Amino acid sequence: MKRDDKKLSIIGAGAVGTAAAQWAVTRSVADTIVLLDVVEGLPQGKALDLVQTSPLTGSEADVLGTNDYADTADSDVVIITAGLARRPGMSRGDLLDKNVQIIREVTEEVARYSPNACLIVVTNPIDAMVYTVFKVSGFPKQHVVGMAGVLDSARYRTFIAQALDVAPRDVTALVMGIHGDNMLPLVRLASVGGVPVEALLSKEEIEEIVYRTQHGGAEIVGHLKTGSAFSCPGLAAVEMAQSILRDEKRVLPCAVYLEGEFGISGIFLGVPVVLGRDGVERILEFPLSQEEQEALGRSVEAVKRQIAATGL
Ligand code: TXD
Fold first, then answer.
1. Looking at the domain assignment, is residue 181 inside a domain?
2. Could you give the maximum distance between any two Cα atoms of the chain, in Å?
């Protein structure tokens, strides 16, 4: 590796980890992309398959599949997807006990080999898992961030675009709070090409979109039956990694450690932040209406219950 080469590691070569690796290779977000899993052969086979896309995509990234954390050493960014995914009828909370144990082990290894990395946590229940990674790694709060808001906002934007029959990329909309039924898709600030969505859709249409966003993950689990969403979650994580690796300073909703922002302290929760070379470079705080503040309060209570269940 050259001195300023970038290295991205992805822990967990399941559905989301593989999708993330595929997007990362396609977009050449790093010079070296490492895919790690506990299952022998799985990351090696997937890495080989992915690197063989290079002649077709023009990607120049090296891709390595491994079971050995030593191969992840000195990563700039590590995306953590290891753990169990939801099955039908299973809440994100049901996953908690099993995934806390996995996340503890993974974090210790990642932190040992890449002490300066930014960690992007994807494993559910995300708001408690990212807290676990923060506590176990001992990393600065700027270097630990959870992925949920980019995915939830992409779903929200898609549903708004479909309702209005407009280009999805022209929809600007933000989902804050927990990654769960109490998430807060902000209606007041949703706009399309600068025009408020509230002026274009009825209250009932907006309520339907908000509900569908809040249950967007479950809708997909209901169809798939044996797994949960992976393409958009993988891309959402890579969008965040890319902003850090290329110092893009994108404004993205991410689960970050709050110390008084939005009147919340001591937990990770989804809020808009600037992601750049230093990780979470800034939290963009702004006044919420009383109704929004109350809705965010419900997220806070739900996250606190999850954190209490981790035993940390
Ligand atoms: O918005 C979000 N944050 C999410 C979160 C969106 C989608 C999925 N979300 C969660 O990500 C989901 O609920 C799961 O907790 C994770 C991973 O979902 P995925 O669909 O990728 O699960 P898989 O396909 O079961 O893959 C998990 C992989 C699998 O290959 C295991 O062998 C591996 O994790 N695994 C491990 N890897 C390394 N180290 C350890 N200890 C380990 N344990 C399992």
1. yes
2. 56
Cα(82) to ligand 1 centroid in Å equals 4
**For residue 2, is it within any domain?**
no
Residue ranges making up the domain that contains 272: 149-310
Q: Which atom, in ligand 1's list, is nearest to the CA of 17?
A: 21
Model confidence pLDDT, tens digit, residues 227-275: 899 999 999 999 999 999 999 999 999 999 999 999 999 999 999 999 9
In this structure, the answer to whether residues 135 and 156 fall within a common structural domain is: no
Residue with tokens 């309060």: 297
Domain check: are 217 and 245 in the same one?
yes
Report how many domains make up the chain. Answer: 2
Q: Which residues contact 305 (CB under 8 A, 6 or more apart)?
A: none
* Beta strand extents in 16-168 (DSSP E only): 32-36, 62-66, 77-80, 118-121, 144-146
CA-to-CA distance for 273 and 8, rounded, in angstroms?
A: 21
59 within 8 A of 26, measured Cβ to Cβ: yes
| Residues noted as catalytic | 179
pTM, full prediction? 0.97
